């Protein structure tokens, strides 16, 4: 069973792609009993893209997603530490905010990129990714495998990186031990 006590702090990627592919409601459903937070740096990344990708306004306007505008010293020091490690100009600043909130507030982080996820693990920050969240929902009976297969294929069609090709979710999740083969 998933620990439901900590909030979930999301990176830009999952929210962006779920919104663009029409699956944002699934994230709302799966996180209904947990606070969903984004750092101001993720909000900034989404706002930069909303003119070209109006569907992102769904994320920015969602009443179930709150923006953390931390400016206390602990957060700023943590953000700077991660910024030094992974930021390149404006790139990866969302991940810096996610990691900083995970470290300073105890939120579970949702990071799909391997480098920030590895940093979270090495720093002792609770971390998950989109696919494990979906697989947990399958195991807990919240979602069905065929639905998640469709969702994964839509994410892939939207050029979101997943560790399998279209049609490969079920086999991948089974091989990773995340679901029983159904």
Tell me what you see in this structure:
- The protein is an alpha/beta fold and 182 residues long.
- It is built from 10 helices and 5 strands; from the N terminus they run βααβααβααβαβααα.
- A 5-stranded parallel beta sheet has the order 3-2-1-4-5.
- Helix 7 links the parallel strand 4 and strand 5.
- The longest helix is centred in the middle third of the chain and has 14 residues.
- The radius of gyration is 16 Å and the shape is globular.
- It starts with 7 loop residues before the first strand and ends in a 7-residue tail after the last helix.
- The mean pLDDT is 94.
E-strand count: 5
Number of separate helices: 10
Net shape = globular
Distance between the termini: 20 Å
Quaternary status: single chain
The description of the largest β-sheet is:
5 strands, parallel
Mean pLDDT: 94
Structural class: alpha/beta
């Amino acid at each position: 069973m998933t620990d439901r006590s900590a909030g979930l702090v999301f990176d830009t990627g999952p929210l962006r792609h779920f919104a663009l592919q029409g699956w944002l409601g699934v994230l709302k459903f799966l996180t209904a009993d947990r606070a969903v937070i984004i750092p101001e740096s993720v909000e900034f990344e989404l706002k930069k893209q909303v003119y070209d990708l109006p569907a992102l306004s769904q994320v920015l306007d969602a009443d179930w997603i709150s923006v953390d505008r931390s400016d206390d010293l602990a957060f700023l020091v943590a953000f700077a530490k991660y910024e030094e490690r992974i930021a390149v100009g404006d790139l990866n600043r969302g991940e810096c905010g996610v990691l900083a909130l995970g470290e300073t507030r105890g939120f579970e982080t949702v990071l799909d990129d391997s480098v920030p996820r590895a940093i979270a693990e090495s720093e002792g920050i609770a971390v998950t990714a989109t696919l494990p969240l979906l697989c947990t929902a399958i195991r807990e009976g919240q979602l069905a495998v065929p639905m998640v297969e469709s969702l994964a294929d839509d994410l892939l069609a939207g050029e979101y990186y997943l560790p399998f090709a279209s049609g490969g979710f079920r086999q991948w999740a089974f091989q990773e031990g995340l679901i029983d083969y159904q």
